[in-house]
Specification:
CATH topology of chain B: Rossmann fold
Strand content of chain B: 15-25%
Oligomer: heterodimer
Order of helices and strands of chain A: EEEHEEEHEHHHHEHEHEEHHHEEH
Low-confidence stretches of chain B: none
Strand order of the largest sheet of chain B: 6-7-8-3-9-10-12-11
CATH superfamily of the largest domain in chain A: P-loop containing nucleotide triphosphate hydrolases
Number of helices of chain A: 12
Distance between the termini of chain B: 40 Å
Distance between the termini of chain A: 30 Å
Largest sheet of chain B: 8 strands, mixed
Structural class of chain A: alpha/beta
CATH topology of the largest domain in chain A: Rossmann fold
Shape of chain A: globular
Strand content of chain A: 15-25%
Number of domains of chain A: 2
Shape of chain B: globular
Radius of gyration of chain A: 20 Å
Mean pLDDT of chain B: 85
Low-confidence stretches of chain A: none
Helix content of chain A: 25-40%
Largest interface: A-B, 73 and 72 residues
CATH superfamily of chain B: P-loop containing nucleotide triphosphate hydrolases
Helix content of chain B: 25-40%
Number of strands of chain B: 12
CATH architecture of chain B: 3-Layer(aba) Sandwich
Number of helices of chain B: 13
Structural class of chain B: alpha/beta
Bound molecules: adenosine-5'-triphosphate, iron/sulfur cluster, magnesium ion
């Protein structure tokens, strides 16, 4: 297996009027070529900003600690992503080697330019494409994500498409440059299941075809089960569990992961009420001391949870969890 | 009937698209839809991306042009024919009927604080007497939607997708409407919060006596939340039924395909779904006969020629398919 990206000790804060917000707290993970990583977690837990960090794409008020390091392994050797500064340098990671499908479909299309024109522009920015060739390839990509009448849609504006079509158009645009790493932020959220299945298949094909690595952010654990090789779970900026998909879904170790799985609406039982993880998500300005999850944890083991940040413990070589329950067993 | 809040009758919405001056085409986003939404119900609307769910919801809010047929709103206090509604009535209708947007990023003004975003409908509609009252109302709704006081002072750019969705929900609820179209309102939320927001919406619904049209592609969410479900395909309703009936025995081949495509939580159960093949037809160039025939595994010649009507079986379970009865027989399919 060849490494594609290594994230080490990523800590990311945002400067705001009310002070520094810690959005990502000392997160490390790696992804190999051809591997699909599912990134799940609470709303506001830092999934999107972690993903954007991989492209050095966070807002201007973002502050990375000096220990934070992201290494992208490209054909031309390793690139230290967070040291990239000029637009030319950044082009290596933005839309070239790395492509991102954003959570907010409207935000990624300029309102006054047709879908097609944007796709063509992006292709020409990153490769040697004639107008004709770029158009043909763009239409083919639109077609492959299941957009009917692709040639006609090519000349339409984003606001003229339904939410799901917009999302598919965005997927087509992101895939058209054949990136080495694809970051997909809730890419199937607005899609109905039959189209979702189609898009998931397409992504799998692309992994096989281009040996692409994918970071797949989703809150749908069914989608994770169907697509990912491994899963990372985030809560309030911390990576609290990491492991192979089968392990994490069948054998979740962290109380939050267990709560997530329990909260899932199940089709075979319509009578029991939905069981959310109790309590409120703390504000990122008031991150709880100790374990960030202790304010909502039903398995809290004692004062240690309120004062000591749990270390990563290895359940085995691939499955990691950050929770005091495992301190003694695995110390 | 007094217990119907909204009744659509042959409702159609068309958009003129592309082409030159003389060959303007019309895209039929919603095509001849009739339905009743009972007062106090949680009415689910599911279907393919592009099938017209958002457009139907918007038409019922009088926010998309009704090109044929009509819809009627009646809440016991007022009666509005949405086609012939006057300006003054429309102003009043805007208080009574609200939308929670599909795309919270497009919906929130970046220059307003969250407090102002939530307060705006109250101020625009003049629903509160003074700032104290407005603030109290905003805080109450914000708390219900799990937004704290600090959140209220911040601008939307500083929020995650799920947090923004809760802001949109708070904004829609603040004017105490009677009818809410919630368009993919929990799609951006992770499951622990989603369960919470769904419970919250249900709670608010019964507390405030609200009626919801709940648009979602997530069938398990719909199954747990809605009393009644309508399935759309290419602008048409293909099946409507009380939720339990629908999930216990879907009749339309498209509904069955939808159910079987729900991603399984079992990683070793990949690809077992009965997958639909074929292209989604273009809404500007729709198939003849049954609109699903180009992708239906059970299509016969008759399906290509004659469009099936929504048949009612007297129990509220309606389906538009020529073959549903024979396909339900145990030996079929
Ligand atoms: N530019 C910014 N300025 C200040 N705070 C920010 C900024 N961008 C993000 N944040 C904060 O960082 C935290 C993480 O946000 P992020 O968007 O990564 O969440 P997420 O896990 O993707 O959530 P969701 O599932 O809701 O999309 C949130 O508390 C958010 O408010
Ligand atoms: N303003 C518009 N101009 C032209 N066409 C439009 C407009 N709004 C919607 N449409 C078209 O109408 C059809 C139905 O769109 P709609 O947004 O209602 O679908 P939807 O069922 O909500 O889909 P999704 O699940 O993807 O949100 C689509 O073909 C869409 O492209
Ligand atoms: S460390 Fe303590 S509070 Fe945190 S998840 Fe584990 S048991 Fe719960
Ligand atoms: S009418 Fe025919 S094509 Fe349409 S859903 Fe029924 S069997 Fe399939
Ligand atoms: Mg996000
Ligand atoms: Mg929609």
């Amino acid at each position: 297996m060849t490494a594609l990206i290594d994230v080490e000790n990523l800590t990311l804060k945002f400067r705001t009027d009310e002070g520094l917000i810690t959005a990502v707290d000392n997160v490390s993970f790696s992804l190999n070529k051809g591997e699909v990583m599912g990134l799940v977690g609470e709303s506001g837990s830092g999934k999107s900003v972690t993903a954007k960090a991989l492209m050095h794409l966070n807002a201007k008020n973002a502050v990375y600690t000096p220990e934070s390091k992201i290494t992208l392994h490209t054909d031309r050797g390793p690139v230290d992503v967070l040291s990239l500064r000029s637009p030319r340098e950044l082009n290596i990671v933005r839309g070239g080697a790395v492509s991102m499908i954003f959570q907010e479909p409207m935000a990624s299309f300029a309102p006054a330019i047709t879908i097609g024109k944007q796709m063509v522009e992006q292709l020409q920015l990153h490769g040697d494409y004639s107008n004709d060739k770029a158009k043909r390839w763009s239409i083919e990509m639109l077609d492959r994500v299941g957009i009917s009448d692709a040639a006609k849609r090519f000349d339409q504006y984003a606001f003229e498409l339904s939410g799901g079509m917009r999302q598919r158009a965005m997927i087509a645009m992101a895939l058209s440059t054949q990136p080495k790493l694809l970051i997909a932020d809730e890419p199937t959220t607005a899609l109905d299941v039959t189209i979702q299945a189609q898009v998931i298949d397409l992504m799998k094909d692309l992994v096989a075809e281009f040996h692409m690595g994918i970071v797949f952010i989703t809150h749908d654990l069914g989608v994770v089960a169907q697509t990912a090789d491994k899963v990372n779970v985030m809560y309030l900026g911390r990576m609290i569990e990491e492991g192979p998909v089968r392990e994490v879904i069948r054998n979740p170790k962290h109380p939050y992961t267990q709560g997530l799985l329990a909260a899932l609406p199940k089709l075979d039982d319509l009578d029991s009420p939905l069981t959310p993880v109790p309590g409120d998500i703390p504000s990122p300005l008031e991150r709880p001391a100790g374990c960030v999850f202790h304010t909502r944890c039903s398995k809290i083991v004692g004062d240690v949870c309120k004062s000591v940040d749990p270390k990563d413990r290895r359940i085995d070589t691939t499955h990691k969890v950050a929770c005091h329950i495992y301190d003694e067993v695995l110390a | 009937m007094s217990d119907v809040l909204i009744r659509a009758n042959g409702l159609s919405v068309g958009f003129p698209i592309g082409g030159g001056l003389f060959n303007k085409q019309v895209l039929k986003a919603v095509d001849n839809v009739s339905l009743d939404i009972a007062k106090g119900s949680f009415f689910g609307l599911v279907g393919e991306s592009g099938s017209g769910k958002t457009t139907l919801g918007r038409a019922l809010l009088k926010a998309a042009p009704i090109t044929a047929g009509g819809a009627h709103y009646s809440d016991g206090e007022v009666d509005y024919d949405l086609e012939k509604i006057t300006k003054d009535q429309l102003k009043d209708y805007r208080k009574r009927a609200q939308l929670i947007f599909q795309d919270p990023y497009a919906a929130l003004s970046p220059r307003m604080t969250v407090r102002d975003i939530i307060a705006e409908p109250l101020e625009v509609m003049g629903l509160t007497k003074n700032r104290q009252e407005t603030d109290a109302r905003v805080r109450e709704i914000a708390a219900k939607c799990r937004l704290n006081l600090e959140h209220l002072r911040r601008f939307p750019h500083a929020f995650s997708g799920g947090q923004r969705q809760r802001i949109s929900i708070a904004r829609a609820l603040v004017s105490a409407p009677k009818f809410i179209v919630a368009d993919e309102s929990v799609a951006a939320l992770d499951v622990s919060i989603q369960a919470d927001v769904l419970n919250l919406l249900k709670q608010i619904q019964s507390d405030m006596g609200l009626t919801f049209m709940f648009i979602s592609h997530d069938l398990s969410v719909v199954a747990h939340t809605c009393d009644y479900v309508a399935v759309m395909y290419l602008g048409r309703l293909v099946e409507t039924a009380p939720t339990r009936k629908l999930f216990a025995g879907p009749r339309h081949p498209y509904t069955k395909a939808l159910f079987s495509a729900i991603p399984s939580l079992d990683p070793d159960d990949r690809g077992s779904a009965q997958k639909l093949t074929g292209e989604i037809p273009s809404p500007t160039n729709q198939p003849s006969g049954c609109k699903f025939h180009t992708r239906c595994p059970f299509a016969i010649d008759h399906c290509k020629q004659v469009e099936p009507k929504l048949e009612t079986d007297g129990t509220g379970h309606d389906v538009a398919c020529h073959r549903w009865k024979e396909l339900m027989a145990p030996q079929a399919a």
